[in-house]
Amino acid sequence: MDERIQRLNGIAQEGDINSFYDIIQEDVKLLEHIDEFPFVDTPLHISACAGHFPFSLEMMILKPSFVSKRNLDGYAPIYLALLNGRTEMVCQLLQHNADLVRVKGRECMTPLHYAAIKNGNLALLEKFLSVCPDSITDVTTQNETALHIALKYNNLEAFKFLVGWLLRKWPYWRKILELKDVEGKTMGLFAVSHLLALGRRFVNIEKNLGAKTALDILDEQRRRRIDNSEMRDILDRAGALTASSLPTVTSSHEHYLRLPGSCERKKIIFIGNQVRKRISDEKRNALLVVAALLVTVTYQAILSPPGGLWQDNLFKPNTTTAARSPPSLARVFLRKSNSNITEPHRAGSAIAKETALFGAFVGFNSLIFFTSIAVMVFLVPPSEIIGWILAVVSVYLCICYFNSLMIITQAPDWSVYIDIIFPLIVYIVNKLRVALSLHSKG
C-alpha cells in the first residue's frame, strides 16, 4: 500500500494522467485509502505545487474531498499552489470551481487572506472577489477578515483596494466594517490603532470615498455635537491633516478609491443580481409568463376601455350645456360625472372618461402595466443582446401605452410633445448631475 502511494505521489509530481490510471487498475480504492488520513499530502497537493493544471483538475473531479484536505502543515492544495507562485493555474481552477476561494487552511486562512498578505496581488484580489464576492465575509480563527490581514501585514495597497471594492460592490459593507475581532476591535478601531502604531506617514492614508480624511470626519462629528475629543487628541499628536492639505495622489486602482455618483445604482443592480440568482429557472419562466400576460391584458384594456369609445366627432356642445375645454390627463383622475348631457368629444375618446370610476380604472391599470414591464426587465437584465432588445421594445411599448392613454382621455394635442421632451429633460438633468458631482470632487 505504502509503495503504491509513493508511486502515485511521483506520478502526481510529473502530472502524468495516463500513469495515474495505470496504477488505479492495480488498486481501485487507492484514492479512498489516502482520503482516510485526516492530514496528508494528497496527489492534488503535489500536482498543485508542481503547477500541473490537467492533473489537478482530474483529481478535483475524481475526489472532491481532496480540495479541502489539509496536509501535515495545515495547508489545502490551492493554498500550496499560491505559496509556490502558481497563480495562473489557480485562476484556471477557479473557472471550474469558484468556491475554491473560500477553502480554509491553517488558522482558517483562505486564498483571499493569502492574497491580502503580499504586496502586488491586487489583480489576484480582484479575480478572487469577482468569481466569489461572498469570500469577503470569511474570517480566520482570530475573527479577522481580509481587511484585517492586509493591515496586519502592512499591505496598505491591498487594504485600500479592499475598502474601495467593499463600498462599491458589497451592499452589506457596514456589517463587515463593524465586525469585531477576538480582541473586540471593529475594523475602524483596528485600522486607526494599527496605522498610528506605524507612524505619522500613515495617519493621512489619502482620503476616504467621500474625499475626507479621518480628521475631516472628526470635525464633522464635532459639529454634530458628538464627543470625540480623545480620538482628536490622538490624531493631532500623530500629525493628522485635513483633505485640503493633502497632495493629489493618482493610483492604477483609483476607481476603487472613489465613490462615483452612480454607486447607489450599482448597489441596487448588485442586489438585483443576487436576488435573480436565488430564483430558479422554473420560477423565473413562470414570472415572465405572468408578467407578459398582465402587460397584454392591461394594454388591451386601454385600447378597449369600459363603456367603449366614441365613434364620431362632436365639436359643438348641445344647446343645454356650455362648451368645455378638453380635459387634461391629470384631471381624469379627479373629475366626477355631474351631467348626462352629451358633451364635445373626439372619435376614439372614452365614453366613460367623465366618471369617477374611470379615473380609478386608468390609475390601477397603468400601475399594473408599468409594474409588469419593470418585472420583465428585471428578470431579463440588459447584460446580453436579448436583454437590450427587450429593454428597447419595452420603452417603445410604454410610449405607445402613454399615447393611447392620451387619446382615450382626450388630452390636448400639445401633450404629444411630452414623449420627446420628457426623456430629453431626464437625459440633460442626469448629465448635469454627473458634471456637478465631478466638479465638486475635483
TrEMBL record:
Pfam families: Ank_2, PGG. It comes from the Eukaryota. Keywords: ANK repeat, Membrane, Transmembrane, Transmembrane helix. InterPro entries: Ankyrin_rpt, Ankyrin_rpt-contain_sf, PGG_dom. Residues 281-380 form the PGG domain. The chain crosses the membrane at residues 286-303, 356-379, 386-408, 414-432. ANK repeats lie at residues 73-100. This is PGG domain-containing protein. The lineage of its organism: Eukaryota, Viridiplantae, Streptophyta, Embryophyta, Tracheophyta.
